[in-house]
Amino acid sequence: MANLISKSTKFNHFLLNTRVRFFSPFTTSSGNGGGGFIKPTGSFSGESATIFRPERYQSGKAGEQLDTIDYEEVENQVMDFPGGKVPITSQMKFISELSEKRLPCYRVLDDDGYPLPGTIFEEVSKELAIKMYSSMVTLQTMDTIFYEAQRQGRLSFYLTTAGEEAINIASAAALSLDDFVLPQYREVGVILWRGYPLEQVANQLFGNKFDYGKGRQMPCHHGSNELNYLTVSSPIATQIPQAVGVAYSLKMEKKEACAVTYFGDGSTSEGDFHAALNFAAVLDAPVVFICRNNGWAISTPINQQFRSDGIASKGQAYGIRSIRVDGNDALATYSAIRAARKMAIKEQRPILVEAMTYRVAHHSTSDDSTKYRPVEEIEHWKTAKSPIAKFRKYIQRNGWWSDENESKLRGDIRKQVLEAIQAAEKVEKPSLTNLFTDVYDKMPLNLQDQEKSVKDAVRRFPKEYPSDVPI
Ligand SMILES: Cc1ncc(C[n+]2csc(CCOP(=O)(O)OP(=O)(O)O)c2C)c(N)n1
Ligand SMILES: [Mg+2]
């Protein structure tokens, strides 16, 4: 039977008959990993058949295949196999490729910002709710301005978190600074929440001499030792097994912390994802896997990515407790990640969270997503399903927010981001020497030779090289 979220923290008890549940790694006699989940009130297959082609969201066709198998077990016959006794059946029955029903999605707020009847969630104080909301707006504003700056040719590359602001901020708010974060690339909100200044975001994007990475990474590859946020690496999914290693070392050191790794739906097609889940389960590593299932891996929709019922079902296959959550609902995401973190640390086990969302923006500034999906669909998720609008309705209804607060916040953030851009743009680039340092304690001869030849080339052909990069 699936496990209840621990009651030790404050939950909102509207009605007591509904429970937040993680799918247990082991199925029960109910056949689908635990019954009694909250019945989802919305669906990610799209509300309007004319606009949405449901197959995009429907990677599996649960409900259309074999019924849950009811085996007749042969009395007094078991296979005494290492790890537990296996019952024997005389019937040749194959287990179905999918469970009877699709895994439901845990949601707290409806589209109007009202808690669903019977929902149980972690309450957030007014102060925390406003901080979460302001951070989501900061992320959105920052994305808009940096995206435009790239379009003006001031930056070489950018990618936004548009539509995924709640996953970024609400999950970050549920973590502790002692936890180690191993991100993909669409999670800049997580590092911002941990205290990375807007100025540093701009420094990284411009690769100037204040950038922690000394200009050696592509834009959007943030990282900070101080904030326990490992630098983004471009090859997809490499961070997932690394997170298991980090978690295992936290376990060995008996730390009150876990590793948290983020990745997209597309990344789950990499072998690294599967190896990581298996290692984590076998090693009982305190790691929280957060999959942002945003429907797309650049132009590849999820129904071309996998045939399983999304990602949460894969957790169970590896023996990992898992949940599917509405990633556009900040309160549901916050509650699920708080519970996941707590279980990962207290019980020393991995947890998988599949956060359902939609990538509202193009994949990056190198993409035009209108070439492969209808504009109406994007617009729908941008407006009707906006995680920011939904959370605003909640805080405004609670009397914590007003239209005046909103316009002041947006004005202030816009000013801060523009100032950060203008300042970072003017800062000189790191010296060319940095290309050769920080890998070896003492630079080997071959690198010394390469450094010399690069610098000679720049001196001989100065017009061929950027004038703002000091030698
Ligand atoms: C190993 C590897 N293969 C391919 C790529 C090119 N690539 C960059 S992002 C991306 C899509 C990833 O999609 P997903 O994991 O769903 O993340 P999202 O962009 O949707 O947030 C691909 C294929 C890469 N960076 N690394
Ligand atoms: Mg994706």
Explained architecture:
This protein is an alpha/beta fold and 471 residues long. Residues 1-19 and 27-57 have low confidence and may be disordered. It is globular, with a radius of gyration of 24 Å. The termini are far apart. α6 (271-283) links the parallel β6 and β7 (287-293). The chain folds into two domains: 126-426, 3-Layer(aba) Sandwich (Rossmann fold), CATH 3.40.50; 432-464. α1 packs antiparallel against α10, α1 (126-151) crosses α11 (403-426) and α2 crosses α8 (330-346). The longest helix is centred in the first third of the chain and has 26 residues, at 126-151. The strands form four sheets. Strands 5-6-7-11-10 form a five-stranded parallel β-sheet, sandwiched between helices. A two-stranded antiparallel ribbon has the order 1-2. Strands 3-4 form a two-stranded antiparallel ribbon. The chain has twelve helices and eleven strands. It has helices spanning 126-151, 165-173, 188-193, 198-206, 239-252, 271-283, 312-317, 330-346, 375-383, 387-397, 403-426, 445-460; strands at 3-4, 21-22, 73-81, 84-89, 180-182, 259-264, 287-293, 296-297, 300-301, 321-326, 351-356. The protein binds thiamine diphosphate (TPP) and magnesium ion.
